Amino acid sequence: MARLAGKEPLARERRHDIIVLPGIYETPTDLRELTRPLRRRGHTIHRVPHLARQLAPMSWLRERVERYLVANDLTSVILLAHSKGGLVGKQVMMGAEGHRIAGMVALATPWQGSRYASLFWPGLGVRSLRPGSAMISAAMSPHESDARIVSIQPSFDPHVPQHAHLPGAHQIDLTRPGHFAILSDRDVIATVANAVDFFGA
């Protein structure tokens, strides 16, 4: 996996259908710096409609993605996720349509939750990210899909200050800090492109 952290993308192995899963209060547009080079390399970028800015219950979000996979008859899909989007992605990989997913590249996903989540008012969709919640417990449950996840974490995340590694996943620790800043960092963009090629190797 060391090759994934290089600055130059690998030669394209194959073209993929890539589903973008943004984080809370985000839209796929927030990941456009990551998807632009992937689109140029021939990958098809998909946006699942009406994800309610990731504020809906996890089961509802998972079902929206599953319905999109089935409706479009997609297979060998790569999920490109940021923050809570990675938690949604793992739920999809563990679910009934998980066989359609080749792998997931997840950036700054709070696998073990964030202690700041408990500071938010109930109903804002954030408190479910507190450590020990049902959502976080499900994300940390060992599953064969963990081996198909590339987890990319910043050197420091002001939104997720504690340890954010997912056991069993391929971990890439960046030298760049920031929860959102990494989404437009040139080296991170290249690392994401390499991770996509890793699943096609």
Task: Give the CA-CA distance, first to last residue.
Answer: 12 Å
**Number of folding domains?**
1
Q: Which fold name is given in CATH as the topology? A: Rossmann fold
Largest sheet: 6 strands, parallel
Helices, by number, come to 5
Describe the structure.
The protein has 201 residues and is of the alpha/beta class. The protein has a single domain, classed as Rossmann fold (3-Layer(aba) Sandwich), CATH 3.40.50. It is 28% helix and 15% strand. The chain contains five helices and six strands; from the N terminus they run E-H-E-H-E-H-E-H-E-E-H. It has a six-stranded parallel sheet with strand order 2-1-3-4-5-6, with helices on both faces. Helix 4 (134-140) links the parallel strand 4 (101-107) and strand 5. It is globular, with a radius of gyration of 15 Å.
Topology:
Blueprint: E1 17-21, H1 32-40, E2 44-47, H2 58-71, E3 77-82, H3 84-94, E4 101-107, H4 134-140, E5 149-153, E6 170-173, H5 186-200
Parallel strand pairs: 1-2, 1-3, 3-4, 4-5, 5-6
Helix pairs in contact: 1-5, 2-3
Protein name: Alpha/beta hydrolase
Organism: Bowdeniella nasicola
